[in-house]
Amino acid sequence: MxxxxxxGQSVPGPPPARHQRAAGKPTGPWPGARRGRPRTAGAExxxxxxxxxxxxxxxxxxxxxxxGDRLADEAVLIKQFDVPxxxxxxxxxxxxxxxxxxxxxxxxxxxxxxxxxxDSGLPVPEGDLADQIRGPGELSTRLLHWKYEPVPAxxxxxxxxxREHDRCLCMxxxxxxxxxxxxxxTNYLLARAATGMRADDFRGDFYQLLDAYGVDMASYDIQxxxxxxxxxxxxxxxxxxxxxxxxxxxxxxxxxxAGFDFALGRLSREVRFTVTGIGRVSAVA
Length: 285
Known about the structure:
With 285 residues, the chain is of the alpha+beta class. It has helices at residues 41-62, 74-81, 85-98, 153-156, 206-212, 231-237, and strands at 2-4, 10-12, 66-67, 70-71, 101-104, 108-111, 116-119, 133-134, 139-150, 167-177, 180-190, 219-228, 244-253, 259-268, 271-274.
């Protein structure tokens, strides 16, 4: 057996596989190979419904299919997304289960879920986090804990230039937007960056506090994940125990690249991060 190469030359092909069956019967491409299960019509339809659900969710957050507090009419959505009525209604049922919409006879489909979009960049100097949040209401904080204490060993591993017996300012607070709690944040700020800070000064957000004391903020690293809300978290965020929440870890760095603050946060699922301008990673020789 020969195979025609791209250059037009004939090259030896692989020997006949021992596992091949009699002529006319299907064989696998290699010994032990598994054939993918054929996708059933029901499975294909489920994927279509799921994709529509995801697109509708984004469109609701973007307010592109919302008029006032109502979702656009079914006829409009069917035409816009080019789907059958039964597929649309199943996707809407999923959104209702998510708590984003409520379908009321005579009133149409009401949008009841909220979303808060946060620009992931650091606020401009002397700015505040409220300028970077697109959502209803004003941003405020409710302070739960403020104490200077030894830097926990786990935190030491995330920060730079931490010496033995160094201390940090541990502050824990609930972030409130429009009167609704949306996040529980704990910051471990190295004491040398927290010199002179008082709890009474923490009236806005954490970045405002650092700016007010002239702390050098240049960049930050962040990791995001998900988890289920434990009882204490659920109570503080006014959600049900077991509800999904966003977990984040953040290290704030100065202009020299040294990390001086480590934060752990739990955010309600309504919070969305906007990250823009991420460059392509260069190949390393």
